[in-house]
Design goal:
- With 291 residues, the protein is α/β, with parallel strands linked by helices.
- It has one domain: Alpha/Beta hydrolase fold, catalytic domain (Rossmann fold, 3-Layer(aba) Sandwich).
- It has eleven helices and eight strands.
- An eight-stranded mixed beta sheet has the order 1-2-4-3-5-6-7-8, sandwiched between helices.
Length: 291
């Protein structure tokens, strides 16, 4: 069963086929305006950008796809290594006839955004990311405190358990509420995210997201796999000071690998920064993209 799309004034929807899968894309703003690609994270979809889309669409073309397996995009049984998702979005730019865009990401969308910047740097003018560590971690092992904050990833990756947690819905809502500091999600907002993930194919996609990361991507990342791939895109990372997955993160050891990346700590803010601080995201995007 396909759930109805939530509506945002001025935003239209279409499906675009790339690399053999169907991606749902939300779009707004003048077609000939400077384009911005917005990539969401888990457990959300394009609608997390709703306030930001309305503001930026005043003078930009905004494009907010659902990542494969999430929202209203197709949910294949495989392909959840994050480089696959980066390749999906590069192919989406090709399909839309866009040579170069500015980019905003949140959560997994930030990780995918980094990979887009590294894979096709000529396609991205500027990158504004939020709410996750970057790809160039410090050499020391992560603290126990930071590892414990990621307990939910192991639960979601576990065969059978992860799908079951998604199907019943309450787990998704608890994750959303527990990691938001500034304000609360309404029951309606929680349902917009949790209900989509109850669908069997999307519950499986969530498990694949985290299983791929923990089994195939985490170890190379911690071992410095990206230290030989410097980031040249002008980038700004926004980190919520009270984001549980960023506790103990360091903002001073990336210069050798990302010389044009600045990190800003945002006070009194949790993990879901674009919905906690939408005006700040819009302001930082306008500042960065006009530089």
């Amino acid at each position: 069963m396909t759930l109805p799309l939530p509506q945002v004034e001025g935003i239209e929807h279409r499906d675009v086929t790339v690399r053999g899968i169907r991606l749902h894309v939300a779009e707004g703003g003048p077609q000939d305006a400077p384009p911005i690609l917005l990539l969401h994270g888990w457990p959300q979809h394009w609608w997390m950008w709703r306030e930001i889309l309305v503001e930026l669409a005043r003078d930009h073309r905004v494009i907010a796809p659902d990542l494969r397996g999430l929202g209203w995009s197709e949910a294949p049984k495989r392909g959840y290594v994050k480089q696959e998702m980066a390749d999906d979005n590069i192919a989406l730019l090709d399909a839309l006839g866009l040579d170069r865009v500015d980019l905003i990401g949140h959560d997994w969308g930030t990780i995918v955004g980094f990979l887009v910047c590294l894979t096709a740097p000529e396609r991205i003018g500027h990158f504004l990311g939020a709410s996750v560590p970057h790809l160039w971690p410090p050499s020391e092992r992560p603290s126990v405190r930071r590892l414990l904050a990621l307990w939910y990833q192991a639960a979601l990756a576990a065969p059978g358990l992860g799908q079951g947690l998604m199907r019943q819905g309450d787990f998704t809502k608890k994750v959303l509420q527990s990691a938001r500091v500034n304000g609360r999600f309404t029951d309606y907002e929680l349902a917009q995210y949790a209900d989509v993930l109850k669908q069997p194919e999307r519950a499986l996609a969530t498990a694949q997201f985290y299983r791929s990361f923990l089994l195939h991507e985490l170890k190379p990342l911690v071992a410095g796999a990206f230290h030989s791939r410097p980031l040249q895109t002008p980038t700004r990372l926004l980190w919520g000071r009270r984001d549980p997955i960023l506790q103990g993160a360091r903002d001073d050891e990336h210069r050798a690998f990302a010389p044009q990346m600045e990190i800003e700590w945002v006070p009194d803010t949790g993990h879901f920064l674009p919905e906690e601080r939408p005006a700040l995201v819009v302001q930082r995007a306008r500042e960065l993209f006009s530089s």
